[in-house]
Design brief:
alpha+beta, NADH Oxidase, 4 strands, globular
Length: 166
């Protein structure tokens, strides 16, 4: 499958079937995604594969209803700083996590697994159910699953609306 086909196939799933995604498929996705670029090759991310259905249900209990039917969950955090930017430089962790997240989404789509990025979670709520995250910075939760419906048509701005050439 070419990259454009993956872009068109991938979407934020809102209608998961509830079927569990096999651990080995999720591990393949994460193994491929770890090839994502990061500032100074710091690879600051840490993946938490949440297999315990009860923990997944607790974490999604305060989220939208559709999240409860996901068949897999990964939480991406950053640990101890491997690269601290010098004065007036950017902290690249958000870029790095965005980069690895994009790789995860496309790898999953390539395996016919749908995903949904969740950024509207309550850190304290999640950390209550996974105490080992206590000292972690939670960046994003990614849900995985199989869709009950076909991908929607993508509505995007025209390039000329979001492009300036100087």
């Amino acid at each position: 499958m070419n990259l454009l086909d993956l872009y068109l196939k991938r979407e934020s799933c809102r209608n998961f079937s509830g079927e569990k995604v096999d651990r080995n498929i999720l591990l393949e996705i994460l193994d491929e995604a770890k090839l994502a670029p990061s500032a100074r090759n710091s690879q600051p991310w840490h993946f938490w594969l949440i297999e315990d259905v009860n923990i997944r249900q607790e974490i999604t209990s305060d989220l939208s209803e559709f999240t409860k039917d996901a068949g897999g969950m990964v939480i991406i955090t950053t640990e101890d700083r491997k690269f601290i930017p010098s004065y007036k430089r950017h902290d690249y962790y958000s870029f790095d996590v965005g980069s690895v997240s994009s790789h995860i989404l496309l790898s999953a789509a390539n395996k016919n697994i749908q995903t949904c990025l969740i950024g509207s979670f309550d850190d304290d709520h999640v950390k209550t159910h996974i105490p080992s995250l206590k000292n972690e910075k939670i960046h994003i939760i990614i849900l995985f699953g199989y869709a009950n419906d076909k991908p929607r048509v993508k509505e995007r701005l025209e390039l000329k609306e979001i492009l300036s050439i100087v």
